[in-house]
Amino acid sequence: MIKIRKIIPFIFNKFLSDNNREKTEKIILKVAIFSFFIHLVIIFFLKLDFIDFPLNSELLKSPISAVYTPFSFILIYEVYLLIYYLPRSITTYITKQYEIITLIIIRKLFKDLSALELSANWFEIKGDLQFTYDLIASLLLFYLIFLFQKQGKRKTNQQVINNSIIDRFVKKKKLIAVVLVPLFFVMSLYTLINWTTGIYFSSSKLSAFESINNLFFDQFFTVLILVDILLLLLSFFYTDQFHKIMRNSGFVISTILIRMSFGVSGLISTVLIVVAVLFGLAIIKIHNKYEKILNQE
After folding, report:
1. Confidence band (pLDDT; 50, 70, 90) for 33?
2. Residue among 239, 235, 272 at smallest CA distance from 256
3. Cβ(177)–Cβ(83) below 8 Å
4. Would you say 101 and 258 are in contact if contact means Cβ atoms under 8 Å apart?
5. How far apart, in Å, do the first and last CA atoms of the chain sit?
6. Interacting residues of 40 by C-beta distance below 8 A, sequence separation 6+
7. Which one in 49, 77, 97, 287 has a CA-CA gap of 20 to 30 Å to 281?
8. Are 145 and 102 in contact (CB under 8 A)?
9. Whole-number Å distance between alpha carbons of 191 and 27
């Protein structure tokens, strides 16, 4: 038991310390820039017929779509930050979930930019309509996340809880974070191998873009639902306050709505994402009103 108590902090400091976060940020940034140029080179080589790629892909038609690749690595870093902030702040952890799904939409916009059909029939073309929906949704999500962060900081300033209770809960969250690091690494590696194998054995074309865009992240948000439920159950050991239970339950529902968006496409998917963040914002705003009243008593 003593060894386990020592192992968890050791692993946590090894992978999720401030120093390691800075190193990870620099490495992923360098890889993202390198991948961007590699993607560009492949696109130009295809256009000049220097290489022959038998499979058809929307990601290999325009230099603009090359931004999709570095954005994928930025999303990987956001996943790391989500795990990094899990033991530190529940609201920042949830904020990272919202930032990840927003960046997925932004990444998709770069691909769609290269395939826009500029014509008078803009609102009759399915691809152009979806681009419009995603563009509006990304702006709306950006603002909602800003409001959510404001509410999260306000909650932190008002919160007064016994330090020993916080420390015990933080230790449990550190254990969850330590488990998530290798789990997400294995998941991402499996996704990469599975997708690469699928390309190699495909004889006609790549998978539909929607399935490529959802690679890893549909399973990722499934795991987050389980994590959120676990955090909800653990919170019962440290608080019986109704508004906190409602806040944590609301965050679970919000994550489930985001996960559901991967199972549908088009406008419904975009609406589910916006509703998920709106619901999370409403939950934390009401929670903070409860906190304010309790602090005045």
Report:
1. very high
2. 272
3. yes
4. yes
5. 42
6. 63, 66
7. 77
8. yes
9. 21
**What are the backbone dihedrals phi and psi of residue 62, each rounded to the nearest 5 degrees, phi first?**
-145, 145
Looking up tokens 């603002």 gives 143
Give the model's pLDDT for residue 297: 62
CA-to-CA distance for 176 and 235, rounded, in angstroms? 14
b/e map of 199-230 (b: 16 or more CB within 10 Å)?
Answer: eeeeeeebbebeebbbbbbebbbeebeebbbe
Q: Residue 36 to residues 41, 63, 221: CA-CA distances in angstroms?
A: 9, 10, 26
31 neighbors 73 (Cβ within 8 angstroms): yes
Q: In terms of Cα–Cα distance, which of 102, 1, 116 is closest to 65? A: 116
Q: Which two tokens stand for residue 45?
A: 């080589």
Sign of CA dihedral 280, 283, 286, 292: negative
Model pLDDT, residue 254: 96
pLDDT tens readout for residues 117-142? 666 666 666 777 888 899 999 999 99
Token look-up 């963040």 returns 277
50 or 28, which is more confident?
A: 28
Q: Alpha-carbon distance 1 to 35, whole Å?
A: 44
